[in-house]
């Protein structure tokens, strides 16, 4: 061997005990869908079949909602709050004990690098349960009155980019507040949710408190439109979010919506350049750019643009693309063929509209769905790649001359989920943070998450917050509302 | 030359360097430490690390006997396996240089350089005249490399012109007879911004290598410190076309630690730096762990400590 080439270091698949088929998790048991339909879930890195998954239709949704309603009225809402907390602690501990299994299954089903599922997704998911377990018996301090009540049965629909983590963001606060849930994982990534269902059984969680129904968009619509749902919590595209908002507009259902983003990552000329380059890479290439809060619009102050781009390109040549199960992989597979087509389609408009594409030399595997880390320079606000969410490893680079212009460009978007500020000057960071219209603002870092920190967007990026006290409040109603 | 050597131009140059964000630098170093180096790449890395070791003894109790034993170890780290490469250098105090050089020459280690710590190592608290004499003495005794310490007191109090001048003078003494390694003693500089500035100061003044520590102060060669220094040599190369070496020293005791250092080099300064002329690891205990891990890779099982030599 010549030079320091990292030999393949794959995580073992043996720990992932994936069944050949899964039913729906309703009322504490795995049951077959009433019509017996199923669909496949595959490994996007190899296109190999992982398992056959039960397809829930209207009838299955109805039985899941009924089971959640019964568990809500008879058991969960009546249980002493500290008892609820104990179940959440137990779930959190089991997730930690089975962390490696969760990480392997997540990587196989989603295509993300094992380093990320192992070091980010799974530990954060467990942390969400620990955090909310502590809240269960302290709900009077959430800020919605002295005797807050749960909203009831919550329908939850989660995306494919962080399957387990988004499940934790949804289920942990709902349960801590005393609600019961019917959760629909994404069509392409159902496996960790089904593994979580096993954890609920292992923890002895009362039947019906958590129900997991697998399927596609039609399944999701059936859940949204079920008359006995009190609240919808959705994370996904702005398009579907708008459809949900329309369909519940004439009902008493409340909603939390976490939608798209086109985050600006602003690098000022007094920034710590090497760390900013790391932050740019982490902002757009973390999780293949399948991140709603990804820093997909890089705004560089013009007087440092050349230096930063040169360093960014060098750094991008070090990104290791390939087998997601290899512990040294930095960029894994695109989650589905459909998503790959979408990334290609929008990126190609970048070429067509005159932006300059650059990718480092990298060999992509022949099987599976792959897209190289890509940047476009010479992008202006009017390019499609500067406006639309690509949801892939594609970065649009723009420049600004003055801080005020940087802010103006950053805010000139229909989204407002997140933003990043890179400057070594505290006063500038605080000033910029105040001007930016985004729900989450990172200073000298990017894509950092914590259960205690509320997450959510401005404008078309969504309604409400998740995480922290603010997120929890969305799962509670005040005494006043109950009195009506 | 990027600067004219005046204190004003030095200060301007150093203050124009981009700052280091502590959290970000530590996060990058921590991420790189998760690289999993197995099988063939581990075997390659172990041999590379052995060839980069500056086998060191810097004790008050050092004797001719101890130094001779170290020389034997440097030439043939594993007497039972002659495919093991020799180490990068021997690093000793000034008064041991002559014996080390003679011994190495006598036992087939002519190519192994002898490095002498100089300029009132480790504190650097002596007059300029003493530091010059100290260096000249080591060169006269046959030292191939001079590991000098910078005046941290002067650096921290802002007298960077003095620090620069001192390195320049020592460099002139070294001439083409000895390579100059400049020890920053990062544990006393404390901040990463200081580490970056001191790295540039040393490179501008003529260092062939920048070295983290004396080994007498903790913390020493932490991963983020080495990262910042590797970034400095990488960017200095872009700026000037000259490649400066890096030597972490202090606290690197295990094969795992050493491999993490090589990963840092590979993904920061780049593969060009992965050879003993541009990267060294200052250590005493490390070599035996490298040898034991090497045996483990070849035989599949761990040998007891008695299967490696104690020197």
Structure description:
The complex is a heterodimer of chains A (484) and B (311). Chain A is α/β, with parallel strands linked by helices and 484 residues long. Chain A has a 7-stranded mixed sheet with strand order 14-15-16-13-12-17-18, with helices on both faces. Chain A folds into 2 domains: 21-259 and 460-483, Aldehyde Dehydrogenase, Chain A, domain 1 (3-Layer(aba) Sandwich); 264-451, 3-Layer(aba) Sandwich (Aldehyde Dehydrogenase, Chain A, domain 2). In chain A, 40% of the residues lie in helices and 17% in strands. The longest helix of chain A is centred in the first third of the chain and has 22 residues, at 114-135. Chain A has helices spanning 58-76, 81-97, 99-110, 114-135, 163-176, 191-202, 217-225, 238-248, 273-285, 302-316, 337-352, 384-387, 403-411, 426-435, 468-473, 479-483; strands spanning 21-22, 24-26, 29-31, 38-43, 48-54, 149-150, 153-157, 180-184, 210-212, 231-235, 254-258, 264-267, 297-301, 356-358, 374-377, 394-400, 418-422, 440-443, 462-463, 476-477. Chain A is built from 16 helices and 20 strands. In chain A, strand 4 (38-43) and strand 5 form a beta hairpin. Chain B is of the alpha/beta class and 311 residues long. Chain B has one domain (7-301): TIM Barrel. Chain B has 13 helices and 8 strands. Chain B has helices at residues 7-15, 22-32, 39-52, 64-75, 97-106, 128-140, 152-156, 160-174, 186-189, 192-205, 223-240, 255-267, 286-299; strands at 53-56, 89-93, 114-118, 145-149, 179-183, 209-211, 245-247, 281-283. In chain B, strands 7-6-5-4-3-2-1-8 form an 8-stranded parallel sheet. The longest helix of chain B is centred in the C-terminal third of the chain and has 18 residues, at 223-240. The interface between A and B is medium-sized, with 25 and 28 residues.
């Amino acid at each position: 061997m010549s030079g320091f080439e990292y030999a393949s270091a794959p995580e073992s698949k043996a720990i992932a005990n994936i069944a050949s088929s899964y039913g729906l998790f309703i009322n504490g048991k795995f049951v077959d869908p009433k019509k017996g339909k199923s669909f496949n879930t595959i490994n996007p890195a190899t296109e190999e079949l992982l398992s056959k998954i039960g397809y829930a239709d209207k009838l299955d949704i109805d039985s899941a909602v009924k089971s959640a309603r019964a568990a809500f009225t008879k058991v969960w809402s009546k249980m002493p709050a500290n008892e609820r907390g104990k179940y959440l602690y137990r779930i959190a501990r089991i997730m930690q004990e089975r962390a490696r299994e969760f990480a392997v299954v997540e990587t196989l089903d989603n295509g993300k690098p094992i380093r990320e599922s192992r070091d980010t997704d799974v530990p954060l998911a467990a942390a969400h349960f620990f955090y909310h377990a502590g809240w269960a018996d302290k709900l009077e301090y959430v800020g919605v009155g002295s005797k807050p009540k749960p909203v009831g049965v919550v329908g939850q629909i989660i995306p494919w980019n962080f399957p387990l983590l988004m499940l934790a963001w949804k289920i942990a606060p709902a349960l801590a507040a005393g609600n019961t849930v019917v959760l629909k994982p994404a069509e392409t990534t159902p496996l960790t949710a089904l593994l979580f269902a096993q954890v609920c059984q292992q923890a002895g969680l009362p039947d019906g408190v958590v129900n997991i129904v697998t399927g596609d968009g039609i399944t999701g619509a059936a859940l949204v439109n079920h008359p006995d749902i009190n609240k919808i919590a959705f994370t996904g595209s702005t398009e579907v979010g708008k459809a949900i908002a329309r369909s519940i507009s004439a009902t008493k259902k409340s909603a939390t919506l976490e939608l798209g983003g086109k985050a600006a990552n602003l690098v000022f000329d007094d920034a710590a350049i090497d760390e900013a380059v790391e932050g740019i890479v982490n902002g757009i290439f973390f999780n293949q750019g399948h991140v709603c809060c990804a820093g997909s619009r890089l705004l560089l102050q013009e007087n440092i643009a050349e230096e930063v781009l040169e360093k960014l390109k060098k750094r991008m040549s070090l990104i290791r693309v390939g087998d997601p199960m290899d512990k040294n992989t930095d960029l894994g597979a695109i989650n589905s063929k459909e998503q790959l087509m979408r990334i290609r389609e929008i990126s190609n408009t970048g070429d067509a509209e005159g932006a300059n594409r650059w990718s480092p030399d990298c060999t992509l595997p022949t099987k599976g769905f792959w897209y190289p880390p890509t940047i476009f320079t010479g992008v202006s606000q009017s390019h499609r790649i500067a406006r639309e969410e690509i949801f892939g490893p594609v970065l649009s680079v723009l420049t600004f001359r003055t801080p005020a212009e940087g802010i103006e460009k950053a805010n000139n978007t229909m989204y407002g989920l997140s933003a990043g500020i890179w400057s070594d000057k505290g006063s500038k960071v605080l000033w910029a943070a105040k001007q930016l219209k985004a729900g989450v603002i990172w200073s000298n870092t990017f894509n950092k998450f914590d259960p205690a920190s509320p997450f959510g967007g401005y404008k078309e990026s969504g309604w409400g917050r998740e995480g922290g006290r603010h997120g929890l409040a969305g799962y509670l109603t005040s005494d006043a509302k109950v009195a009506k | 030359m990027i600067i004219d050597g005046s204190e004003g131009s030095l200060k301007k140059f150093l203050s124009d360097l981009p700052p280091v964000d502590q959290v970000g630098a530590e996060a990058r170093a921590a991420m790189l430490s998760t690289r999993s180096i197995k099988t063939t790449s581990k075997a390659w890395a172990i041999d590379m690390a052995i060839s980069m070791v500056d086998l060191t003894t810097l004790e008050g109790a050092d004797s001719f006997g101890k130094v001779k034993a170290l020389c034997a170890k440097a030439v043939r780290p594993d007497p039972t396996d002659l495919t093991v490469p020799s180490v990068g250098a021997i690093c000793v105090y000034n008064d041991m240089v002559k014996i080390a050089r003679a011994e190495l020459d006598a036992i087939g280690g002519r190519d192994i350089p002898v490095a002498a710590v100089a300029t009132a190592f480790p504190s650097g608290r002596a007059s300029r005249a003493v530091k010059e004499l100290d260096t000249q003495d080591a060169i006269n005794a046959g030292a191939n490399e001079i590991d000098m310490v910078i005046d941290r007191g002067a650096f921290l109090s802002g007298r960077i012109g003095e620090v620069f001048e001192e390195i320049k003078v020592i460099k002139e003494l070294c001439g083409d007879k000895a390579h100059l390694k400049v020890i920053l003693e990062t544990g006393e500089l404390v901040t990463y911004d200081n580490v970056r500035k001191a790295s540039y100061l040393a490179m501008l003044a003529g260092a062939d290598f920048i070295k983290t520590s004396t080994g007498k102060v903790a913390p020493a060669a932490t991963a983020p410190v080495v990262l910042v220094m590797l970034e400095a040599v990488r960017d200095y190369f872009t700026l000037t076309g000259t490649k400066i070496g890096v030597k972490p020293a202090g606290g690197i005791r295990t094969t795992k630690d050493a491999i993490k250092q090589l990963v840092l080099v590979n993904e920061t300064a780049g593969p060009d730096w992965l050879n003993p002329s541009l990267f060294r690891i200052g250590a005493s205990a490390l070599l035996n762990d490298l040898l034991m891990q090497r045996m483990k890779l070849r035989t599949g099982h761990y040998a007891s400590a008695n299967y490696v030599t104690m020197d």
